[in-house]
Amino acid sequence: MIKRRASRQTMVGGVAVGGGAPVSIQSMTNTDTRDIRATVAQIGRLADAGCQIIRLAVPDMEAAEAFGQIKKQVKLPMVADIHFDYRLAIAAIENGADKVRINPGNIGSRDRVEAVLKKAAERGIPIRVGVNSGSLEKGLLEKYGGVTAEALCESALNTVRFVEDMGFDNIVVSLKASDVALNDGAHKLIADRMDHPLHIGITESGTVESGKVKSAVGIGSLLLSGIGDTLRVSLTGDPVEEVLFAKQILKAVGLRRTGVNLISCPTCGRTRVDLPSIAARIEQALPILEAEMEARELPGITVAVMGCEVNGPGEASGADFGVACGKGRGALFCRGQVIKTVDEEEICSELIGYIRERVLRHTETR
To answer: Do 304 and 349 sit in the same domain of this protein?
Structure first.
């Protein structure tokens, strides 16, 4: 079992962050915030995928006003992403922001930062503050000879103290790097030096393909160490991919028990069916099933796709449902017990149908 780092709890809309609450999944829209219709539509897709908190860029006052119109049309807690102009942060808060992400270093003078914090305090919303490897202070770069885990940690702690000195402590902290090892080291340094909730991720991780590798290693390592209260997987592309992959990371480390955990064997010379194709078709059918399960708040299940009798019901006995394949056929099983045998081309439809019958329709009759 993972022993999670103790942290304070704050609320982002209706989502608890820190204090032992489940690790929440965030993403960020890549539409023009001023395009209200497109942004609302994308947030809807993200919510359907399992996103719990959504962040929007607010680059100008028109976007801040659109933020308020979007807020009226969506259910997800909304975070305003602000840089440079403190007036945009205040406008976003007045337009219903559930959290504001700022970098105190580029907002301006102390009185401007204080104005933002005062408005946030009036509305009872948290501020996310932090640093990333691309924007470290010159003094720290000189002190540590470049970007290091120690420099990132010190920069983040300085920022936290700066905000706390103004009497504001409803804070979520982030310190991110695109280098996985650097990112890991910085978080492990700061984890026991303050108790504010931590927003984790690998910044600028890359494309959907390469970014998933970095994110799985970087975010997964932190979660296994008990670090992280909310997370974002940052990928170049459709943000829905971020949400779906974040769910997979949480399931892989055992922090999310909902949905479907798919396991499949790597195949070998004993395999006498097209197992990669079978596993792919089953995987493609799972998102709809997962969405229905989560909507009904059903516990998660494990589905096993095994290529031969050796890796069949015996080795996968811990799975709730699965298939063990032979020559052109597959034996469907439920918790180690064989249910029936079907032809290869029927495996996917028969297995998914059986799971739906047992998991979804059974609950309707309770």
So the answer is: yes
- How far is the C-alpha of 180 from the C-alpha of 219, rounded, in Å? 9
Q: Are residues 241 and 266 in the same domain?
A: no
184/205 same-domain check: yes
Do 193 and 342 belong together in one domain? no
Same domain (yes/no): 173, 321: no
Q: Please tell me whether residues 27 and 145 are part of one structural domain.
A: yes
What pLDDT digit, counting tens, does each position of 138-195 carry? 899 999 999 999 999 999 999 899 999 999 999 999 998 889 999 999 999 999 999 9
The beta strand positions in the chain, using DSSP E, are 9-12, 15-18, 24-28, 53-57, 78-81, 99-101, 127-132, 171-176, 198-200, 230-232, 260-264, 301-306, 321-325, 329-334, 337-343
What burial class does residue 43 get, using C-beta atoms within 10 Å of its C-beta: 0-12 exposed, 13-18 middle, 19+ buried? Answer: buried
Round to whole Å and give the CA distance between 117 and 89.
9
| Cα pseudo-dihedral 20, 78, 235, 25, rounded to 10 | 20
Domain span at residue 117 reads 9-252
Under DSSP, is residue 200 helix (H, G, I), strand (E, B) or coil? strand
Confidence of residue 298 (pLDDT cuts 50, 70, 90): confident
- What percent of the chain is modeled with pLDDT above 90? 65
The pLDDT value recorded for residue 360 is 80
CATH of the domain at 276: 3.30.413.10
Q: How far apart are CA 202 and CA 184, in angstroms?
A: 9
Token code pair at residue 326 = 């032979």
Predicted confidence at residue 364, as pLDDT, reads 47
DSSP string computed for 210-271: HHHHHHHHHHHHHHHTT--SEEE---BS-HHHHHHHHHHHHHHTTS--SSEEEEE----TT-
